């Protein structure tokens, strides 16, 4: 007889018997649970040997452990609200899951649903390869909806994809004949104005509609390298890895490319100044520039917006004598000036106003342009007689603080820069001679910036947006319903969005919706560029009628921007009336 070993389990089972019990439990519909200390010994053994359900996994307990040392499975309420499930981002509802499904299976199903939602939300975001907390990857606010209107505001951002949906078919946009395609190109080159009726009964039989549709898809690009995708340029290194770049190590070839690019850039600016080109984009691997002719976006002079910028770029522009503005900083300054004027009228003491103004300026990095303003901030120390006991920050420390505030807004939408009037010509020369405009290493090394324009210019290549219609059948209330969609892919500029909306208004009888995917670095181009929303002279607007855009599109682009740093994400038309969300 052997003595009893302390801690030895009286319910010891041999491994074959343990496996038999496990197979027997798998036939049951659920796991055995122990509710009290007075349960029978076989029940204790089954509970100790049964696998404990964990979120997302099933782990077998050690059968050689004693019953007393075996931890009991947690209650169901605790299991459903465990931190592991909350960390996975899944809400578990007690009493709504099927008892036949194990918690691990339910967890995997819900996790797959969450991952699919994540992919849908971020699959068509900006081309910027960065983390989700990047300022360009913010989730659009669907609550910012508009009131019904006969026209939607101008959106100066570049769209990478448009998805139109309608209850009527888009078959008229498929299989355009060669004659209709050629006619569309001719209409674009000759800037032919096409006025369609309000409603087209048979869109598939309308040759005029199909030619106008082909005309609205045309844009002009330089340089054009068929084996490289030259838009977007920001964050496009991953797509260009492994491509053939014969110019990356050939300086002579790089000089030829830059020389031709300079001629094309100068040609575009001359067309802009003559009001024969309404606007164009310069897309580099670090930032994007939007040049607009006088009369557009509520300005009577030529304007240029650069986003995003860095402190180094702004300092280089200052050294070249380019006068520019920071629109977001100007808006903040006007707000605080208005607040200070209200405080001076009696809402607060003058001392409180001065203190708040100084504090606000320090936060924005705009406090005091000279040393006298910095000294005034410490005058109260002399009044208290403790100026010798407290160390006063020197000029270098104050300057470093200002520089830190300036660097904090780099690569963000708030760093957008506005250039007006004759300074845009200085900006042209600065960009042509700027060595950092072209990447010196990496997949984009030696490639000049991409020029995108709605009209032709020297050295440009005609390109068309890719369009295709999709017809699917969806199940709605146990019945199948036809769903029609039209997809437009490419650099969709502001005038193209408006032209396509006018065409679909006639072809779809004033009922359609469009999901717009924005190139996020260009969304900030919707910021206001003037202090007052003043009406422009008729002569300024009249000179733009020769730029090749439809008069209705030109009237829309001449309005004052109202979207701020947001862009249109959803555009809908019902009964010929627009609504949109940003």
Notes on the structure:
There is one protein chain. The chain has 19 helices and 15 strands. The protein is an alpha+beta fold and 582 residues long. It folds into four domains: 15-109, no CATH class; 142-175 and 184-201 and 465-527 and 564-581, no CATH class; 222-326 and 416-461, no CATH class; 337-408, no CATH class. Helix 6 (178-189) packs across helix 7, helix 7 packs antiparallel against helix 17 and helix 11 (327-347) packs antiparallel against helix 12 (350-364). The chain is globular. The termini are far apart.
Instruction: Please give the number of β-strands.
Output: 15
Mean pLDDT: 75
Low-confidence stretches: 29-51, 53-57, 75-143, 358-376
**Roughly how many Å apart are the termini?**
84 Å
Q: Given the structure, what is the number of helices?
A: 19
**Major sheet: size, sense and barrel closure?**
7 strands, antiparallel
Strand content: 15-25%
Strand order of the largest sheet: 8-7-6-5-9-4-10
Summarize the amount of helix as a percent range.
25-40%
Choose one word for the global shape. globular
| Structural class by SSE content | alpha+beta
Q: Roughly how many Å is the radius of gyration?
A: 33 Å
Question: What number of structural domains do the residues give?
Answer: 4
């Amino acid at each position: 007889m052997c003595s009893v070993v302390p801690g030895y389990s009286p319910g010891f089972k041999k491994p074959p018997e343990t496996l038999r019990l496990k197979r027997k439990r798998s036939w049951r519909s659920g796991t055995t649970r122990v509710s009290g200390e007075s349960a029978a010994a076989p029940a204790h053994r089954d509970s100790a040997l049964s696998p404990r359900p964990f979120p997302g996994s099933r782990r077998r307990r050690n059968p050689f452990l004693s019953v007393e040392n075996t931890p009991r499975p947690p209650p169901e309420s605790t299991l459903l609200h465990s931190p592991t499930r909350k960390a996975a981002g899944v809400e578990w509802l007690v009493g709504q899951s099927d008892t036949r499904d194990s918690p691990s299976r339910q967890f995997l199903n819900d996790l797959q649903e969450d991952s699919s939602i994540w992919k849908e939300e971020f699959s068509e975001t900006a081309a910027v390869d960065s983390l989700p907390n990047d300022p360009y990857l913010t989730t659009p606010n669907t609550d910012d909806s508009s009131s019904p209107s006969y026209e939607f505001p101008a959106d100066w951002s570049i769209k990478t994809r448009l998805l139109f949906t309608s209850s009527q078919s888009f078959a008229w946009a498929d299989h355009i004949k060669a004659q209709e395609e050629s006619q569309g190109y001719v209409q674009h080159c000759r800037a032919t104005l096409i006025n369609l009726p309000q409603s087209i009964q048979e869109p598939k039989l309308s040759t005029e509609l199909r030619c106008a549709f082909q005309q609205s898809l045309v844009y002009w690009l330089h340089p054009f390298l068929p084996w490289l995708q030259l838009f977007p340029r920001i964050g496009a290194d991953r797509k260009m890895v492994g491509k053939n770049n014969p110019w990356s190590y050939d300086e002579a070839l790089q000089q030829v490319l830059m020389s031709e690019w300079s001629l094309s850039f100068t040609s575009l600016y001359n067309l802009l100044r003559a009001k024969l080109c309404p606007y164009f984009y310069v897309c580099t691997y670090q930032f994007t520039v939007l040049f607009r002719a006088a009369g557009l976006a509520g300005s009577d002079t030529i304007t240029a917006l650069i986003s995003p910028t860095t402190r180094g770029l702004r300092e280089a522009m200052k050294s070249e004598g380019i006068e520019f503005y920071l629109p977001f900083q100007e808006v903040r300054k006007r707000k605080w000036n208005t607040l200070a004027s209200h405080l001076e009228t009696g809402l607060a003491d003058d001392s409180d106003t001065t203190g708040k103004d100084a504090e606000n300026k320090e936060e924005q990095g705009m406090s005091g342009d000279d040393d006298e303003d910095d000294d005034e901030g410490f005058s109260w120390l002399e009044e208290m007689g403790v100026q010798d006991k407290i160390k006063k920050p020197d000029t270098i420390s104050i300057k470093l603080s200002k520089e830190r505030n300036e660097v904090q807004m780099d690569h963000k939408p708030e760093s957008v820069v506005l250039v007006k009037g004759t300074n845009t010509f200085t900006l042209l020369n600065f960009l042509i001679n700027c060595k950092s405009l072209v990447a010196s290493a990496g997949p984009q090394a030696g490639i000049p910036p991409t020029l995108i324009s709605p009209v032709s210019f020297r050295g440009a290549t005609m390109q068309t947006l890719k369009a295709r219609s999709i017809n699917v059948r969806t199940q709605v209330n146990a019945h199948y319903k036809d769903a029609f969609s039209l997809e437009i892919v490419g650099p969709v500029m502001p005038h193209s969005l408006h032209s396509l909306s006018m065409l679909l208004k006639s072809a779809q009888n004033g009922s359609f919706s469009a999901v717009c995917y924005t190139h996020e670095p260009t969304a900030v181009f919707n910021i206001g560029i003037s202090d007052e929303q003043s009406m422009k002279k008729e002569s300024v607007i009249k000179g733009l009628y020769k730029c090749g855009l439809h008069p209705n599109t030109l009237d829309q682009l001449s309005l004052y921007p109202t979207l701020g740093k947001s862009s249109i994400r959803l555009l809908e038309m019902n009964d010929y009336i627009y609504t949109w969300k940003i």
